[in-house]
Amino acid sequence: MMNSLSVRIERLEPMRVASVHVVSEHPEAEAWERLKAWAAPRGLLKDPRKHAVFGFNNPSPTADRKEYGYEFWICVEPDVVSEGQVELKEFAGGRFAVTTQRGYPSPQIWKQLWDWVQSSGYRWRKAHELERIHDALTSEHEVIFDLYLPIED
C-alpha cells in the first residue's frame, strides 16, 4: 500500500569510494564477495557510518538477457589505494528520496518509491538508484537497506 511508504529527502555529500563491478547471471553475490574480501581485512566493514556500503544495478536487468551488472561502493579515506579488481571513484553526491526496507530490496518497493516521487512534486534525475546496506555484517534475515532514488535539486 502506497500510504505505508515512509519517504525522506536526503542529500549525499561527495565521497570517495572503492568500487567492485561484476556482470553475470547473479552479480550481487559475486560482487559482494569481492568487495568483502578486499574491505574486511582493512577493517572497513566494522563502521557502517564511516564506511557506508552502496550497491546498484549496472547495467540493469532486461527481459532479453540473463546477465546484468551489479556494482558495490564502499566509502574510503583519501589515502586508500586501488588494488586488484577494486577501482577508486569520486561520487559527486546529490539529492535523493529515501525509504528504508527490511530484507532485500524488491522491484515492488522501488516502484512504490518511484510512484511517490512522481506524485510528490519532486522530479527524478538521471543517476544511479542506490541501495545502502545498514550493516554489511548482519545476517540476511536481519538485513536493512535504505533505497535512494535520485531527484533534482
Task: Describe how the helices and strands are arranged.
Layout: E1 8-12, E2 15-24, H1 27-39, E3 53-57, E4 68-75, E5 87-91, E6 94-102, H2 107-120, E7 130-133, E8 144-151
Antiparallel strand pairs: 1-6, 2-4, 2-5, 3-4, 3-7, 6-8, 7-8
How would you characterize this protein structure?
There is one protein chain. The chain has an 8-stranded antiparallel sheet with strand order 1-6-8-7-3-4-2-5. It has helices at residues 27-39, 107-120; strands spanning 8-12, 15-24, 53-57, 68-75, 87-91, 94-102, 130-133, 144-151. It has 2 helices and 8 strands, in the order ββαββββαββ. The two termini are 27 Å apart. The model has no long low-confidence stretch (mean pLDDT 94). The chain has a single domain (2-151), classed as Regulatory factor, effector binding domain (Multidrug-efflux Transporter 1 Regulator Bmrr, Chain A), CATH 3.20.80.10. The chain is globular.
Low-confidence stretches: none
Strand composition percent:
35-45%
Molecular shape: globular
**CATH-assigned homologous superfamily:** Regulatory factor, effector binding domain
Major β-sheet annotation: 8 strands, antiparallel
Q: Order of strands in the sheet with the most strands?
A: 1-6-8-7-3-4-2-5
Please report the first level of CATH classification, the CATH class. Answer: Alpha Beta
Number of DSSP strand runs:
8
CATH topological fold name: Multidrug-efflux Transporter 1 Regulator Bmrr, Chain A
> How many domains in all?
1
Mean pLDDT: 94
Our count of helices gives: 2
What is the SS-derived class?
alpha+beta
Rg from alpha-carbon coordinates = 15 Å
The N- to C-terminal Cα distance equals 27 Å
CATH 2nd-level architecture? Alpha-Beta Barrel
- The succession of helices and strands, N to C, reads EEHEEEEHEE
Helix content: 10-25%
